[in-house]
Structure formats: C-alpha cells, structure tokens
# Entry
Amino acid sequence: MAENEIDIMLVDAFTTEAFAGNPAGVVLDGSQLTDQQMQKIANEIQVSETAFLTGREQKNVKLRFFTPQAEVDFCGHAALAAVSALVWDKQFEPDGEVTNLNILAKCGLVPVEIHPHPVSGIEVALTFNKPRFAPFGYSRELLSGALGVDQYQLPAHWPLSMVHAGVWSLVVPLSTIEAVDQARPDYDSLARLNQKIGALTTMLYTWQGPVDLYCRCFAPTVGVNEDPVTGTGLAATAALVVKERAIQLNPPLTRLNAEQGTPLGRTGNAKIDVAHDDSGILSVRIAGTAVKTMEGRLRLP
# Structure
C-alpha cells in the first residue's frame, strides 16, 4: 500500500444480504489520521457513518464515528460493521461460542459479544447499560408538522420520549406502518427541533405489524436525512416501550424483533433484548449481522 493511501471497507450492517441494511465505511488503521482527514474521508465515502479504529489494547477497541458532516459520539451499525471487519481481517479471532470485547468511544464503554452465525459466520451484539430517559418538552402539533404527519397519527397514549442509548434519540410513536412509511419530514424544521432538544436522531416506530417494532430514523442535524437501520435508535425505542409497559413483557428479559429501512429499499433486521426489573431498564442488547460489499484503497486527503 502506498504511503498516501489507506485501506477501507464498505460494510452493510443489520443484514445477511448485500445491498440491504445500512452501509458503513470502516477504516481499520485510523490511528495516524487527523480529525480533518477522518472528516474528509467520511464525506468522500458518503454513507451515513464511517468508523475509524484509532487504537486497540487487547480486547478494548477504540473507535470514532463520522457522518459526512460531523463526528458523533457513537454509531450502532458502524460499530457492528467495524467489529465484523476486525474478524474478517483476522485482526481479532473469536475464541468460542461467545467472545467478549469492549468498544471505547466518545459515549463511553460499550460491551460487545461475538457469536457464531450459520449464514454470516458471526453475529455481533452491542449492549447499552442503563439507558436514560427525558421528557419531550414541546407540543405534538409542532412535532407532527416537522415530521410531515397528521397529528391524529401520533397516538396520545403511546410512549413518546427522549432516550439515551449511546446517543440521544427522540422516540415518536405512529399508529400504523402506513403512517410510518408515509411520513415526509421537513428536514430543516426537524433539524432545528433536534438541536433545541439535544437529540441526534428522531425515531418513528409502530408495533402494528408483523414485527415487534417497525421503524424509521432521521438525523438531519448531522447531514443524514434518513438512516436505513440505526442501532442506537432501535435500542432507545425498545428501552422506551419496555419501560412504559407498552408491549407484552417477559421479565427479566423481554425480546423484540425490529425492522427498519424498508421505505428506502434497504430492509434491515435487529434482535433486541431488554433486561429489566422493578427498578427500571437495566440494559439493552442489540444484535445483528453484516456483509462486506467493497474493499479497496483510498487516497489520503
């Protein structure tokens, strides 16, 4: 490899098939890159997030995440892609039925499990401990306008809240799959609203369908109008519906299946385990698989 080039992968996450799920850029040797170089590379790749491995000490992996416009504290699908890429590149060897490591990111420490998978070879699970919750302080009328949905499609008795699982997400219910699919956000208005409340993403969800959670995600504040499959947002959504007992629970561990990305033609699926007891939500574990679609070299900026 020339000195002015770097290896890069494109990986589809939360899918067993190429050209589905959520694509992420992965750079496994980012330790010598400057912040400006990482941002320029992410902007060149033009997927929702690119993950950069900036260091590793035994089973502790340091990752940074950039959208085409900004660095973010964490990204679920890019983390899944990066851990998968480490295994494919033989920089990390799974050592049994369950292999554990930790991701060290701006959001803190995120535990990771690697399991064998019959189709994809491996499945990666991320755990967010003790998700946090905060109220949404604005009217549903304002929110429905920013999301491009009729206010009556936001059921008053369904949970709506801010949730932190790696990053802050605004989690919003809609009454049907059709309502989720037909949402047409005003991205400028939604970006301003998210900036005011400190949310990186807005998650739309419904449980009126063949899966436990059917979702879409918008993140215009960081240049991602719609994200196909969002690990942090799906974890946040699952945590909220379990916290509010909005679905049938199976304590101490309620399991859900989630689908996202269908309106974009990039359907992805995630398995989510929410650990909970009388004190509240203890952790959210989200698992999925990934597929490498491209590998090559990029000239350094």
Observations:
- The first helix runs from residue 35 to 45.
- The radius of gyration is 18 Å.
